Request: fold
Amino acid sequence: MLRRRTLLGLGVAAGALVAGGGLTASAYRRAMAQARTRISPERSTLVASRFGDLEYAEAGTGTPFLMVHGTGGGFDQGLAFAAPLVRAGYRVIAPSRFGYLRSAFPDDPSSANQADAFADLLDALGIDRIAIAGGSAGALSAMQFAIRHPDRCAALLPIVPASYAPDRPPARPWSPFQQSVAESVLRSDFLFWAAIVTMRETMIETLLATDAAVYEAASAPEKARADEILRGILPVSARADGLLNDARLSGNPAPMDLQKVLAPTLAISVEDDRFLTADAARHIAASVPGARLVTYPSGGHIWLGHDRELFGEIDMFLKGIGYA
Reply:
């Protein structure tokens, strides 16, 4: 999540851009028009769940696959992440989690309740069992789905999971000041856009938890993917409740009873992820009976340089267990 220094820097960035006048306004309007097109209601569907409306979108045909987005996402991020699986012949179903885009934000937006909402989505779609992947904070509800609905989980795939690891140092909670600034920033599309424009390296290192040197060494397509992940958080105001909830849930995530996971499990992470998710992936692999672990030495939280390889591993794993 955003650090205090980053949050304060957003105000400076915004002030500098305001001084730019008309050119800044024009660029901001273009960026927001593209963002609104990306999340247009015509691209997604609402279904009723026990917690209110749940938004989702689909792409592809074939074996169903539930792709749960990470922090700052929504159905659009889920579809973008799982595009390699669409090309491999899967029917990718990408929901927006609680507080993201058009999905409801219930009184108790816990990962367990989100998992139950996924079950309601499967009911609406007439799907009995499905493989589920969760990226970053999305891994929390994917793991809860495997625990709470074992008869409906065909496979569990936590990707850079922002989940519990026993030896990881706890994150310091935000002060009231930091909480106030974070809420202001995350409800301001202009401030967030200003940061992307003027503080890209800082945003890559903090929000995407990826070393700037790793980004600079990446191929042009992988740099473009990183840039699109940042731009894809706009409009951040439509994702603010979900972002703040993710900060609460994944800042110091609670342990889960992973022994209850019955589904074949593949945990994937990257050793230099600044969010230390490799520790969590190792804990999952050690705790879930029969689980497999794949880690890459570098690539940060967005696995730069390994996108094709990562989804190839998932495809091979699902074929190996007879699901695909």
